[in-house]
Amino acid sequence: MQEKYLYEYAVIRVVPRVEREEFLNVGIILFCKRAKFIKMIYTVEESKMKLFSSELDFEQLQLNLESFQKIAHGAKNGGPIAQFELSERFRWLTALRSSAIQTSRPHPGFSNDLDKTAQRLFEEMVL
Fold first, then answer.
1. In angstroms, what CA-CA distances link 13 with 3, 6, 16, 21, 61?
2. pTM check: above 0.85
3. pLDDT tens digits, residue range 103-121?
4. Confidence class of residue 22 from pLDDT cuts 50, 70 and 90?
5. HSE (side-chain half, CA atoms, 13 Å) at 16
6. 3-state SS string over the chain?
């Protein structure tokens, strides 16, 4: 029988105008401490974003999301936070903040296949 892993995930949101608190889901981040697993998947659809704000700088948004991903995956060029332990990186990325990129509160689940679960959540929550 396959082992089930307890995981946590959060939905990554873009909030073009923080004061309006409107957001569009653009990705997910899934973390499992026991499996030493973290994965971030995202996509930015400019046409959807333009419905929220015509003033959004898509180039800067893409750079910010790439930095978010570097931190999540512990890239050497991801800055000092990217060198934190997996759980610390996940907690830092999912901390409550008032910025253009935010996350939902973390949600738990169980999975036999963390990669497939990350993809399923991405398809359900974002696409």
1. 31, 23, 10, 11, 11
2. yes
3. 999 999 999 999 999 999 9
4. confident
5. 15
6. CCCCEEEEEEEEEECCCHHHCCCEEEEEEEEECCCCEEEEEECCCHHHHHHHCCCCCHHHHHHHHHHHHHHHHCCCCCCHHHHCCHHHHHHHHCCCCCCCEEECCCEEEEECCHHHHHHHHHHHHCC
